[in-house]
Amino acid sequence: MENMPSGVARVVVSGVGAITSQGGTAEEFWEGVRTGRVAIRPVRGLPMDGYQTGIGGEVTETRRPAYAYTSDDGVREPSVDFALVAAEEALGASGLTPGVEIPAERWGVAYGTCNGGWRSAEHALRARAADEEPDWQRYALVPPQAGAEALGAAFGIKGPVLSVNTACASGAHAMAHALEVIRAGRADAMLVGGSDAFTETAFAGFSGLESLSGKPAAPYSKDRSGLSLGEGSGMFVLLSADAAARLGAPVLAEVLGYGLSADGYHPTAPHPEGEGAARAIRAALASAGLAPEDVRYVNGHGTGTPKNDSAESGAVRLALGEAAEKTALSSTKSMVGHLLGAAGAVEGIATVLALRDQIAPPTAGFTETDPQCGLDPIPGTGRPMDLDVALSNNFAFGGANATVAYARPGHLFEGPADEDHDDVVVTGFSALTAAGDGAEALWQAFEAGTRPGADEDGLRVARAVFDPEAAGTRKDRRRMDRISQLAIAACRAALEHAGVTGDDERAATGVVLGTGIGPVESNERFFLPLLTDGPAAGNPGVFPNTVYNAAAGQVAMALGVKGPTSTLTSGHAAGAAAIGVAYDLLRSGRADRILVPAVDAFSPGALDGYRTIPLFGSRSAADYTLTEGGIALVLERAGAARERGA
């Protein structure tokens, strides 16, 4: 660790907290997974009739957080409860209080989630279907940003607050973005993690894909039959190493680096050889200054589905080469289930505590080696190992891949070269709005003072105007919702405006998308039939579009962009947050070029939510216009832009 170059700020883990099916603390979680105890059992908190399975990694801890984030104690969102409980533990373990040892303005939040407050949305939609008036707070808790803001408000944090939604890689992406915030000097401390709660949508969706196992998941095992869903939260306190040393704060591990990539292959299935995931692993090694032989343990994504496990094993082999055969690859999902957006955080905690205790956790339920996997899964119980560094993998719907590299405190390594902080420039843009198709139409509307939109049952709403053919053929568009079509059409136009036309140029381009309300159209299309006809009515063709990063994944597939990808959901500031994250990725050399689309489209349920929230009920509809749109920028490192003559 002492060899870290002066140009790259060191970042350490000072405290962790978790709530999972193993118990209400990080140590209970670690004790369970370290010893191979399976905490996947019959689910009691949801009606389970009609699903492919009746089991999951359900949280049974009933402790509630100290912070009251709603005015009615009967209106709660379990994903927010989980995050706050885990954060209380993490902060307590660090011995720090935001605003005391470090100014509140120098603390930030990076919060990852797959489903956000969709449990609250299910309550609201069920009430509407029964002609009842849902509590407006149900709608306010739906956006993922609600969890991020609750964390900031609960602990008085006044610095950057990011909400990250890259499906099952969300927790790992939150870690990556928090690392960049500290290294860029915008914060000294970050509260980082992920949270997700069981939803009917998730159980019905994975049942429709025939991905759920009737017994606890057995990743990497020849007889594996599918995944087990889990719920809960994991939270970290990250500090700059300088701040930790100055304050005498505990240090559990160092966050060395990370890698992000897009598959650009399929909405739900990974690249069969693990090509995209391997790029994320290689990028993590490069950013951390590690060689493949430095890695003896990888906490795997290991879901228990045939395609995911074999693809991950292939990715580890591609990235580590011969060293892979000496590397253990285990999955804690076999003991707590797949926590979706919280997986990267909870599994990151397992990785940190493995380094602390020098014990690699096992894969439970493993019976026989699958030749398609074949790496060492550590069957049965934890294994004592000499561990200096370890990786944590998370791969998601939409082809979003993330790997984070952690190290034991005091570990010596060469570290990456000092980062070349090139300027970032805009080389292309596009706009699809109610003013028309193209940025020129938008500018003319501004100049003329044209006000778009029309009344829609008490709200003034402006719909985006664009040619759907720009998103793909009619056949292609059958698998897309409106937000995905807007994103593809806007990004295609922006790339053309920037002159990025070659396949190689596009393959090296990333995509960081911002959306405030996300795929509400697809979520409603999937969930509403369940209310009348049960889980079997869930459309497996719609389910992949219910994750917030589905639009970014569709962009990657349609346009062949395979660089770093992420999706930001910071409410009405999501587009600005996406620009900020893309800027960080470019400045730190993660890519030469990144597409930044900001997109939102309205569904009946979304507009119903806006009508219900008092903010909009207390003013004339004429004072506010809700506007759909697809805006895209091409951000580029100045040197790369000059090199290609942009």
Report on the architecture of this protein.
It is globular, with a radius of gyration of 23 Å. The chain folds into two domains: 12-407, Peroxisomal Thiolase, Chain A, domain 1 (3-Layer(aba) Sandwich), CATH 3.40.47.10; 424-643, Thiolase/Chalcone synthase (Peroxisomal Thiolase, Chain A, domain 1, 3-Layer(aba) Sandwich), CATH 3.40.47. The model is unreliable at 1-6 (pLDDT under 50). It is α/β, with parallel strands linked by helices. The two termini are 40 Å apart. The protein contains 22 helices and 23 strands. The chain has a ten-stranded mixed beta sheet with strand order 5-4-6-7-1-8-14-13-9-10, with helices on both faces. The protein has a six-stranded mixed beta sheet with strand order 16-15-23-21-19-20, sandwiched between helices. Helix 2 runs parallel beside helix 5 and helix 9 (275-288) packs across helix 10 (306-320). It is 35% helix and 19% strand.
List keywords for this structure.
646 residues, alpha/beta, Peroxisomal Thiolase, Chain A, domain 1, 2 domains, ten-stranded mixed sheet, six-stranded mixed sheet, 22 helices, 35% helix
